[in-house]
């Protein structure tokens, strides 16, 4: 099968390309400079040239706080872009995996993860634009598309919370980290693996379309995640101190609880992602190696 990955310069996009390449798949990764998904002529040209069977859309406007004052542009990239991409896929007979977010939910659940079919109610501009993209993909390409929601992503490439904690551990005696937001720390490599598993089933296996949640099993607060990072790199986790969201005010409200349920994977014969702790400890060695190479 031939794959095309948009947003291939980002953390998840790079991991998807690497995972597919490692499986021996024929894959083309296009970053933002190579393909602007908001321009239909560029999409038509890319799909005509590369003739993909499966497209994975990792292109997105991800600046959550900036979107509060830049919603029009965020909507263009997160809403209209996926619609144009889905239309191009429909014209070419390609299937589409579209990456979305937990921000489509209100984040006010208490202890029960949001199932895939839970009513959406975003509280931020970013969440509204991502929900628009979800709806556009499912409307334009029913039966041949999947929306894969993820959250709390970290990885080897790019800026993310885990890399920031590794950096700050070396520069500060103690850290104050928010302890009243709970979610599922998720290694982007694990999400890439599941996307690669899903693609060949999409539109062919029974039920292999619609919405899926690709977050790690288990839950943690940001503070608990930071402590585990310290523990994993041989530092004292007690140097991480809990604090509240009020100590770090942000333009866009962060969900207090955003864990996602994973029931739909088993419907198509796939397992949910593993627990976040072993994934983190496996990721840490690769992240630290990458940081070392970047510093040389």
UniProtKB/TrEMBL annotation:
A single GO cellular-component term from the record reads:
cytosol
Q: Which top-rank group of organisms is this from?
A: Bacteria
* Family annotation (InterPro entries): dTDP_dehydrorham_reduct, NAD(P)-bd_dom_sf, RmlD-like-bd
Can you cite a GO biological process for this protein?
dTDP-rhamnose biosynthetic process
Q: What is the name attached to this protein's record?
A: dTDP-4-dehydrorhamnose reductase
**GO molecular function terms listed in the Swiss-Prot or TrEMBL record:** dTDP-4-dehydrorhamnose reductase activity
The record's function comment reads: Catalyzes the reduction of dTDP-6-deoxy-L-lyxo-4-hexulose to yield dTDP-L-rhamnose.
Q: Which pathway does UniProt place it in?
A: Carbohydrate biosynthesis; dTDP-L-rhamnose biosynthesis
Name the keywords, alphabetized. Answer: NADP, Oxidoreductase
Answer whether the UniProt record assigns the keyword 4Fe-4S to this protein. Answer: no
This protein's gene is called rfbD
User: Which EC number(s) does UniProt give?
Assistant: 1.1.1.133
- Which enzyme class, named as a word? oxidoreductase
Q: Where is the RmlD-like substrate binding domain?
A: 1-287
Question: Which family is annotated?
Answer: Belongs to the dTDP-4-dehydrorhamnose reductase family.
Region annotation Disordered: where it falls in the sequence: 236-255
